[in-house]
Amino acid sequence: MNPDRAPASPSTAVRVLVVDDEPQIRKLLEISLRAQGYGVQLAATARDGIDVLATRGADVVVLDMGLPDRDGLDALREIRQWSQVPVLVLTVRSHESEKVAALDAGANDYVTKPFSVPELMARIRVLLRSQATPAETAPVFDDGRLRVDLARREVTLAGEPVVLSRKEYALLALLVAHAGRVVTQPQLLRELWGPTHQQDTHYLRILVGKVRQKIGDDAAAPRWIATEPGVGLRFIATPA
Amino acid sequence: MALACLECLPAVNAVNSHPPSPARGYLLAIAVSALAALVAAAAERWLGLSDLSLVFMLAVVLVATRSSTGPALVTALLCFLAYNFFFIEPRFTLYIHARHGVATVLLFLAAALLAGRLASKLAMQVQALRDAHDQVLAREAQAQRLAADLQAERVASETERLRSALLSSVSHDLRTPLAAIIGAAGSLDSYGDAMDAQDRHALLDTVRSEGERLDRYIQNLLDMTRLGHGTLALNRDWIGVDELIGSAVGRLRRYQPGTRFTVSVDPGIGPIWVHPALVEQALFNVIENAAKFSPDDEAVAIDARRVGDRLRIDVVDRGPGIPEDERARIFDMFYSAARGDRNRDGTGLGLAICRGMVGAHGGEVEAFPGPEGRGTTLRISLPFLEPAPGTPR
C-alpha cells in the first residue's frame, strides 16, 4: 500500500498537509480543518512540505503555488515522482494558464485565492471521496434526474435513455469520472482525440454543446457541466 | 546679353549669402580686377582691343553686383589702369590719347555706379524679403510652441485629474471595506459573547462580503495596470458564448446570491475565437454593474445574438438610467455617476476595464437607454474572427 495513503478509519483522523508561506492562511486553514475533524500538518516552504510528506505522509495536500523558496509547480512535479496523494493547489484568479499547468502537472484540483472555506472543504471532500473509491468498481452518478452508469455505459435522463455518440459519451464519462473536479482542456483533447489534436478546441466546443443539448443542460446556467473559461470543464456533482 | 544674365546672378546668390563686408568688397575688387587682366591677356590673341575692354567691363559689373558702389568704383579704376597699362599702345605705360582714355574711364565708372546701385537695391529687397520670411518662420515656431505648451498643460491636468481620482478612489474604496471589517471583527471580539447568533452572523457576513469587495477592487486595479502597461497578451481560443455568460453569471451569483437574471442566447451562435478569461471578466464587470443598479424585484436581462459578422451581447438593467450627456463618460476611469446611490460600490473601474479588454479584441462597449426608456442597456460587440490557418494556440 502506498505509504502516504492512510486508511480513513474513524480512529485515525484524515491528515491534511497545508503548505503555504502566509502564517494567516496557515492559521485559518488549521482552525477550519481541525473544526472539521481533520488532522493538520503545516509547512511554510516547499522544502518543509516535501519533507513532511516524505517522512510522515498525508491524505490530502493543500499546496500554495506562490511559495518563497521554490515554484509551486516545480514542487508539485517532484511530489508526483513518488506520490499519488491528492493535491489541491491554491492559485490566483487571473492566472488561468497557471491553473492548467498545475492540473496538467498532476494537481487534482485548484481553489482560487481568496477562497471561501466551505468551498475549500467541499473540494477536499471530493478528493478524499474519489481517493476512497477503488478504481475497479465503476461509479454510477445519479442525482434523481440524470443517471450515468459508467460500467454499463448507459445514460438516462428522467428515466429515458439518452442516445449519445461514442465521442459524446466519452466526454460525459470522463467528466463524471472526475465529478466535482475540473478537467483541463488539454486533458480533454488528449483523452478524446489523442495527443496530436491539441489544437482542435473548436471540435471540443461543438462536442460539449451537443452533450449539453442531449442531457438538457444549459451552458448559460449550467446544472451539470460548467465551463471554467481558459481552464476546462467541471462536472457539478451536487447542484446548488 | 551678358549684363542681363549677370543682373540675375547676384540676385540668386544674395538670397543665400549675406552682403560682403566692406573689406571683403575691396579685396574682391582687387582680385576680380587681377583676374580680368589675366583673362584679357589670355584672350588677347582672339579678341580686338575694344572687345578686351568688355572683359574689364564684365569685371566691373560683377564686383558692382556682388558688393557695393565703393568697391565697384575701385574696380572700375583698377580695370581702367590695367587696361591702359597692359593693352593700350604704347604698352606698359599709362600714356594714352586723352579722348580715348577719358571715355573708357567714364564708361567704366558709369557702369560701376549703375550696376552698384542696382545691386544694392536688389540686396535691400532680398534682405527685406529674407526678414519677412524669418518673421513668418518665427511666428510659426512661436505658434507651435504655444500649441505644444497648451497640449502639455492639458495632458498634465488630465494626469493630475486621474491621479487625484485614483487617490480618492483608493482611500474610499480601500478604506470603506477595511473600516467595516476592522469594526465588525473588533465588535465580535469584544461583545461577541453577549450577542445572539443572528447578530454575530450579521457581523461575520459583513467581514466576508466586505473582504470580497476589497478583493474585487484590487483585481480591478491589477487588471487596469495590466491594460495600462499594454502587457495584456491575447491568448485566443474557441469558447461558447453561452459558456462565457454562464461562468460570469455563476461567479456573480456567488457574490450576490439575490440577483435575478434572464438569459437568452441565440442557439445559432457558434463558439467565438477570443481570450476566454478576459472576455469573461469584461462580461462579469458589465453584469456586476447592471446588478448594482438593478432594483431588487427586477431581473437583469442578458441577450446574446449574432448581428452580421459580430457578436452582440446586451446587458439590460431596470435601474435609474444614465443621462444622455454622461453616457459616454461611464467608461472613463474612476467615473461614477451620482445616480441612485443605492448599494454604491463605486470603484469606477469596472467599465473602463471592460472597454479595455473588449477593445483589445477589436470590439466595442456602448451604453444606451434601456427598452421603453427605462434603465440602461450596455452593449458589448465583438467581431467573429477565425484563427489564422496553422496558428498554434
Global Rg of chain A:
18 Å
Q: Beta fraction of the residues of chain B?
A: 5-15%
The count of helical stretches of chain B stands at 9
Major β-sheet profile of chain A = 5 strands, parallel
Relative helix content of chain B: 55-70%
| CA distance, first residue to last residue of chain B | 80 Å
Report mean pLDDT of chain A, rounded to a whole number: 87
Radius of gyration of chain B: 45 Å
Query: In angstroms, what separates the terminal alpha carbons of chain A?
Result: 36 Å
**Individual helix count of chain A:** 8
The residue-averaged pLDDT of chain B reads: 80
Largest sheet of chain B: 5 strands, mixed
Number of strands of chain B: 7
Uncertain runs of chain B are 1-17, 337-343
Quaternary organization: heterodimer
Low-pLDDT runs of 5+ residues of chain A are: 1-11
Element pattern of chain A in H and E: EHEHEHEHEHEEEEHEHHEE
Structural write-up:
The complex is a heterodimer of chains A (about 240) and B (about 400). Chain A is about 40% helix and about 20% strand. Chain A is built from eight helices and twelve strands. Chain A has a five-stranded parallel sheet with strand order 2-1-3-4-5, with helices on both faces. Chain A has a four-stranded antiparallel sheet with strand order 6-7-8-9, covered by helices on one side. In chain A, helix 6 (about 165-175) packs across helix 8. In chain A, about 40% of the residues are buried. Chain B has about 400 residues and is an alpha+beta fold. Chain B has helices at about 1-15, 20-45, 50-65, 70-85, 100-190, 195-230, 240-255, 275-295, 350-360, and strands at about 235-240, 260-265, 270-275, 300-305, 310-315, 365-370, 375-385. In chain B, the strands form two sheets. Chain B has a five-stranded mixed sheet. In chain B, strands 1-3 form a two-stranded antiparallel ribbon. Classes of the chains: A alpha/beta (about 240), B alpha+beta (about 400). Chains A and B meet through helix 8 and strand 11 of A and helix 6, strand 1, helix 7, strand 2 and helix 8 of B.
